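so my prof wants the structure for this chain in the tokens format not the other one, which i didnt know existed until like an hour ago. anyway here's the sequence
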Amino acid sequence: MPNRKLKAMRYLSGMSQDELASLVKISQAKISRIELGYIRPSTEDKEKIAEALKISSEELFPEV
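here's what i got, hopefully its the right format
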């Protein structure tokens, strides 16, 4: 299932996938795969992504 919230929050922050990936220290391809729902980020990656986007990881990655 695609992570529309991640994509929306990234867009609203004015960041490209490359910029977010650089801040989080993961690849742009991994950000893309997370947004598309192909992979689930690790807990550590969730925290880093949420911090970079200034949102809580629970809000950004709600457990289904």
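also thought this was worth mentioning. Helices lie at 4-12, 17-24, 28-36, 43-53, 57-60.
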